[in-house]
From TrEMBL:
Domain Lactate racemase C-terminal as annotated: residue spans: 272-423
Coiled coil feature spans: none
Protein name in UniProt: Nickel-dependent lactate racemase
Gene name for this UniProt entry: larA
Pfam families (alphabetical): Lar_N (PF09861), LarA_C (PF21113)
InterPro entries membership: LarA-like (IPR048068), LarA-like_C (IPR043166), LarA-like_N (IPR018657), LarA_C (IPR048520), Ni_dep_LarA (IPR047926)
Domain (LarA-like N-terminal): residue spans on this chain: 8-213
Transmembrane segments: none
PANTHER family linked: LAR_N DOMAIN-CONTAINING PROTEIN, LARA-LIKE N-TERMINAL DOMAIN-CONTAINING PROTEIN
C-alpha cells in the first residue's frame, strides 16, 4: 500500500492506496519549494522591490484616504503576515493617512468577527477600520463604467472614494479565471452582484479559454482587468503559499505586471502533466477552501483534467459549512437530471445569469462526464441531492468506484491538493 496524507479540514486524512494501482501522483512543486528567508522577510523584500511601480511608502505620500482590499475568510491568504507589514509600510510613508481595510467578500456571506481575528490577529481586527463588502447593498455601491462583456461595472464606493487603492491577496490556479490574485480583488472581490453575474455568464464560463492556468484570450480575465483599471487599483501585494499555507514567494507593484510575474512563477511550480487513469483521488486543499461544496468544485476540475472517459472522481472535502450557496444547492436538488441543469444554464444570456450558476455549470460539466464520490462530513442527503455519492472513507470510495467501473484493476491518479496544480493535458 502507498500511504498519503491528504489535507482535509484543518487537519489531515491518512489514506492507503494499492501500490500496483497508482498510475501517478500529481503534486505542485510549491509544496516542496524552499524559500530564502522567513515569511516576513519574503514579504518585506517584495515591497522593497516593486515591479514597475514606486515603493508603496512613496505612493502613499500626500494621500489622505488609503483603502486596502483584502481577501475574505474563504481564501487562505496569510493576512496575519501580510497586513501588519502593509500597514507599517503605509504609515512609514504617511503617518497621517486614514487607512481602511475593505474585505472582498464578492458574493460570499459576510466575514464574522471571529474570522477577522483568525485572519488578521486581535490587534488589527479590534483596532483598524475594517469594512465588509456587501454586493447587494446598493447604498454602498457606485457605477464606474461598462465592462467589455457589456455588463455594468459597479463596485464598492469606499474603493472609488480612495485617494490610493491597493490590494493584498494570493496567486493560485483558478478554474475559470486562470489564476487568482491581482485584478480579482476588484472583480469579483468588491463588485456588485449584478456586475459579478455579468462577468460569470454561462458563455464565458463555458469558453475553452476560461480554464485553469489560462489568461490569454480568457473573457473573464479581460473583464477583470478592465475593472481593476477603472477602479484605479494602484498597487498590489500578492503572495504564493505552500501546502501549509506559508508564504514562499511575494510580488508587489503594478496591478498587471506584478500579477503576471507571480502567475508565471506559479505556473512553473504548479504545472503537472496529466496521468490518465480510471480513478482520480483529490482534495480541495483543506481549510478554508474545503469549507463547503461550492468551493469544492474547484478541486474537481484538476481530477477532471487527468481522467479517462467515464472515470470516477473521489473527492475528500470536509464541507463543514455545508453547500455554501442555497441557490447552488437547490439548482441540483430541484433538477431531475444533471443534463437538465446544464441545459437551463446554457440557455441563459449574459444578462440572465443567476447567483452561483457558474459553480453549477462547472459541476454539471464534471458530472456529465464522470461519477463523483465525496468523502465528507456534509449531510449525506445534501450530497445525494446534488447528484453525487457519499463514502465514509477513501478506501471504501475506491471499492465503490471499482464496482461502478466493473473492475478491481483500474488505475488511480492521486492529486493530494487539487486546487494547487495546473494539469496539462
Amino acid at each position: 500500500m502507498l500511504k498519503f496524507d491528504l489535507p482535509y479540514g484543518k487537519g489531515q486524512m491518512k489514506i492507503n492506496v494499492p501500490n500496483d494501482r497508482v498510475a501517478g501522483v500529481l503534486v505542485s512543486k510549491a509544496h516542496h519549494f524552499k524559500p530564502e528567508g522567513t515569511e516576513e522577510e519574503i514579504v518585506r523584500t517584495a515591497l522593497e522591490n516593486p515591479i514597475e511601480s514606486k515603493p508603496l511608502r512613496e505612493l502613499v505620500r500626500g494621500k489622505e484616504n488609503v483603502v486596502i482590499i483584502s481577501s475574505d475568510h474563504t481564501r487562505p491568504v496569510p493576512s496575519h503576515v501580510t497586513m501588519p507589514i502593509l500597514l507599517e509600510e503605509i504609515r512609514r510613508g504617511n503617518p497621517d493617512a486614514k487607512i481602511s481595510i475593505l474585505v472582498a467578500t464578492g458574493m460570499h456571506r459576510p466575514t464574522t468577527k471571529e474570522e477577522l481575528i483568525n485572519k488578521y490577529g486581535e490587534e488589527i481586527a479590534n483596532n483598524e477600520n475594517i469594512i465588509i463588502h456587501d454586493s447587494c447593498d446598493e447604498t454602498s455601491l457606485v457605477k464606474i463604467g461598462i465592462l467589455p462583456s457589456g455588463g455594468e461595472l459597479i463596485i464598492n464606493k469606499h474603493a472609488v472614494e480612495a485617494d490610493l487603492l491597493i490590494s493584498e491577496g494570493f496567486i493560485e490556479p483558478h478554474f475559470f479565471a486562470g489564476f487568482s490574485g491581482g485584478r480579482k480583488s476588484v472583480l469579483p472581490g468588491i463588485a456588485s452582484k449584478a456586475t459579478i453575474l455579468a462577468n460569470h455568464c454561462s458563455e464565458f464560463v463555458g469558453s475553452n479559454k476560461a480554464r485553469t492556468g489560462k489568461l490569454e484570450g480568457n473573457p473573464i480575465h479581460k473583464d477583470m482587468l478592465y475593472a481593476a483599471e477603472k477602479a484605479n487599483l494602484a498597487f498590489i501585494l500578492n503572495v504564493v503559499i505552500d501546502a501549509d499555507k506559508k508564504v514562499i514567494a511575494a510580488f508587489s507593484g503594478n496591478r498587471e505586471k506584478a500579477h503576471y510575474t507571480g502567475c508565471e512563477f506559479v505556473k512553473d511550480l504548479a504545472g503537472v502533466d496529466a496521468v490518465k487513469a480510471d480513478i482520480a483521488i483529490t482534495t480541495n486543499g483543506g481549510y478554508p477552501l474545503d469549507q463547503n461544496m461550492y468551493q469544492t468544485v474547484k478541486g474537481l476540475t484538476a481530477a477532471e483534467a487527468t481522467l479517462k472517459e467515464k472515470g470516477v472522481i473521489i473527492m475528500a472535502s470536509e464541507c463543514s459549512d455545508g453547500h455554501g450557496g442555497q441557490e447552488f444547492y437547490e439548482t441540483f436538488k430541484n433538477a431531475l437530471s444533471v443534463k437538465d441543469v446544464m441545459n437551463e444554464i446554457t440557455s441563459r444570456g449574459r444578462k440572465e445569469t443567476i447567483s452561483d450558476q457558474w459553480e453549477s455549470q462547472v459541476l454539471s460539466r464534471v458530472l456529465l462526464k464522470y461519477k463523483v464520490i465525496l468523502v465528507t462530513s456534509a449531510p449525506k442527503q445534501m450530497i445525494e441531492d446534488m447528484h453525487m455519492t457519499v463514502a465514509p472513507s477513501v478506501e471504501s470510495a475506491i471499492e465503490m468506484a471499482d464496482e461502478y467501473l466493473g473492475s478491481k484493476d483500474g488505475k488511480i491518479t492521486v492529486i493530494p491538493d487539487g486546487v494547487s496544480v495546473v494539469v496539462r493535458g
